[in-house]
Specification:
This protein is of the alpha+beta class. It folds into two domains: about 1-75, Roll (Thiol Ester Dehydrase, Chain A), CATH 3.10.129.10; about 90-245, Hotdog Thioesterase (Thiol Ester Dehydrase, Chain A, Roll), CATH 3.10.129. About 20% of the residues lie in helices and about 30% in strands. The chain is built from four helices and eleven strands. A hairpin with a 4-residue loop joins strand 3 (about 50-55) and strand 4 (about 60-65). Helix 1 (about 25-30) runs antiparallel to helix 3. The longest helix has 14 residues, at about 90-100. It is globular, with a radius of gyration of 17 Å. It starts with 6 loop residues before the first strand and ends with a helix. The model has no long low-confidence stretch (mean pLDDT about 95).
Length: about 250
Amino acid sequence: MAGSLTTVTIDKRYCGPKSSGNGGYSAGLFARAIDGPAAVKLMKPPPFDTPIQLRKSETGFEAVAGKSVIASIEPASVRVDPPPMPSDADVAAAHDDFLKTVGDAHIIPYCFVCGTKRGVGDGLRIFSGAAPDSPVNADFWTPAGDLAGDDGLVRPEFLWAALDCPTAYALRVGGRMTLLGRLAVEIFRRPKPRERLIAAAWRTGEEGRKHFSDSVLLDENRQIIAASNALWIELNDPALIARIKQENV
């Protein structure tokens, strides 16, 4: 296990919905059990301030809180085929599109990654709107200094987080609500804080309630430094959807 890590906890700062951990951030914590590219399948909402044990399984590891299996973690192969990336001007326009189309109507406005009610220096504030005349959703992201590990580079779980939420908006499913089911990530280079990055994502397909999208993080030279394949599950339970909306006002 990487770094002999056996237990993790999720602080409330790193929420998605108010009552559970952000999917990408939580998956990134769990994925530290694997050396190299990893896939995390989320089975239950990751709880806050609770010891989560990373235990060996037949295919990799399981993240277990009490008697509940929160996630499975396995080695993965991540492949992306990016469409043409938007220009800097179009990335800026995509950011503005997010604030215009999502803005105050954000269903999960306190999300650590994309929450519009998170202040500068608190959340990541990655607002990945639709780039003009493009299938890509994108925004700029400059990681803050407090996201670095002991080696001075941005910790992997924050790269997982930054790759996560853009894949949801890239689905472009309108008001339909989806939850992250699986995220596979490969990190080629961990950036330093204050590097100017681009988080970009695009839809790749759907099968019934399953929606698929990919994402990349680009550095200042527009080189891919991390990539992901995401699976989102469309919710079809009106009571659950209503509860999530009510809890996140």
